[in-house]
Design goal:
Arc Repressor Mutant, subunit A; alpha+beta; 16 helices; Raf1_N; Umud Fragment, subunit A; chaperone; two-stranded antiparallel sheet; Rubisco accumulation factor 1.1, chloroplastic
């Protein structure tokens, strides 16, 4: 029997198994802890350091509330007390407000600003400017820089301290710095420096000047840009635009004869989140190109915000609306309407240069007279016996046909957002 077992494969496996198990178990043994000094227990876990300043760590919750109530210390020193009370002591923002008088909004602002200040200390920020942010009011300044990265925060905080900006100006600066990289490819963008906060703010005014309708508004925006621009290339570009505006030339014009000037209608590509970041917005009724002239007439002629809550009321009920940032051409509209076209190639720009995509054409219905040869106008043309479809025509083409009135003057063309694309139409793109 023993000889029979020894001749089977399973018997040999059983004989070899103990050594295999020893090798497997040895490979899975945990790493022994490092040797510790005699008399001390091994402690593999070390709790994180306390976020509270040393002088506040021994205080009871009641004593911490007293520090907050009496503002004992600098704002960024007692800011961690708020977080500790909320996280470890079971307090809520309303209960802290009831005891200390610090509102929930102010609690959040102080805590966020303290973290921003800490990020400045750990970055390349010049420590000589830190005392500027010691006063309680400076917490609101740092709070506005929360959305910037570390390098942007350092340069923005330095700019805020040097120019003694107020919270509203700090907010405008932070938004300009955040928005500047998104404008890559826009006209004049390369003349401004992304590493210079003043240039970022100047480019915001420069861009707004190109959206202005009236020449005085355009010049005023350019003068604001010139006040804050710091690099030589930015200053030169702004001064060039001021000269053009003073001569009454259109933005982007190159001094050509009137017959060769292309339409000066702004064409913008909406960016993701741009409406949410806008300081003001406009609510405009939307009409489909299939609705024809009847749809244009049926759309509300006015809508406006009323009362302290800003509730928007319209002339009549309407089912389709669009919210756009308060750009210059849009903010100045009264009786405006947006026409939705399924194919952007309905516009008179060079065929084949751009793919088929939907666009919104914003028009001013008060300006119906065909008075500008290079302007664009909304018209309705027959497609079938009982159907009309909206279209866009040049003023020159309508004048040649003897047409003196349109459905509205085009003031803006809005293209849909597209990830990773900042393309804008140039003068040469128009047909």
């Amino acid at each position: 029997m023993a000889s029979m077992l020894s001749s089977t494969p399973s018997f040999h496996l059983l004989r070899r198994r103990p050594s295999i198990l020893r090798r497997i178990s040895a490979s899975k043994l945990p790493t022994p802890p490092p040797p510790t000094p005699p008399g001390q227990a091994y402690q593999p876990f070390r709790p994180p350091p306390s976020p509270l300043p040393t002088k506040y760590r021994s205080l009871s919750p009641l004593e911490r509330l007293e520090v907050l109530r009496d503002r004992l210390g600098l704002w960024y020193e007692y800011a961690p007390l708020i977080s500790s009370l909320l996280t470890h002591e079971g307090f809520t923002p309303p209960s802290i407000e009831e005891t200390t008088g610090i509102t929930g909004i102010e609690q959040n602002r102080i805590c966020v600003a303290a973290r921003v200040r800490e990020s400045l200390i750990s970055s390349s920020f010049d420590p000589d400017f830190l005392p500027f942010f010691d006063s309680l009011g400076s917490a609101e300044l740092l709070y506005e820089l929360r959305l910037l990265n570390a390098a942007q925060r350092a340069s923005a905080a330095r700019y805020v301290a040097i120019h003694r900006l107020d919270p509203k100006s700090a907010q405008d600066l932070a938004r300009a710095i955040k928005d500047f990289p998104r404008r890559r490819g826009d006209d004049g963008w390369t003349s401004f420096s992304a590493d210079n906060p003043g240039d970022c703010l100047a480019y915001t005014h420069f861009r707004l000047s190109r959206e202005a309708i009236e020449t005085p508004d355009r010049v005023a925006a350019l003068e604001k840009a010139l006040e804050v621009a710091e690099t030589d290339s930015a200053i030169a570009r702004i001064e060039e635009e001021i000269v053009k505006a003073s001569k009454g030339e259109e933005a982007g014009g190159d001094g050509e004869d009137a017959e060769a000037i292309k339409p000066s209608i702004p064409v913008v590509r909406l960016r993701y989140g741009e409406v949410a970041d806008a300081s003001s917005v406009a609510l405009i009724p939307v009409v489909s190109e299939r609705d024809g002239a009847g749809g244009m007439e049926a759309a509300p002629a006015w809508c406006k915000a009323e009362g302290e809550m800003g509730v928007v009321s319209a002339e009549r009920g309407w089912g389709r609306w669009v919210v756009l940032p308060g750009w210059g051409p849009v903010a100045a509209l009264e009786g405006g309407v947006a026409v939705e076209f399924a194919d952007a190639r309905v516009l008179p720009w060079k065929v084949g240069r751009y793919e088929k995509e939907a666009v919104l054409v914003v028009a001013d219905r008060r300006r119906r007279a065909v008075a500008e040869a290079e302007g664009l106008y909304l018209v309705a043309g027959p497609r079938e016996e009982k159907e009309t479809r909206l279209g866009v025509k040049r003023g020159k083409e309508l004048m040649e046909k003897g047409i003196e009135e349109s459905l509205g003057f085009v003031v803006l063309v809005v293209r849909p957002p597209k990830e990773g694309e900042d393309d804008q139409l140039s003068v040469e793109d128009w047909d």
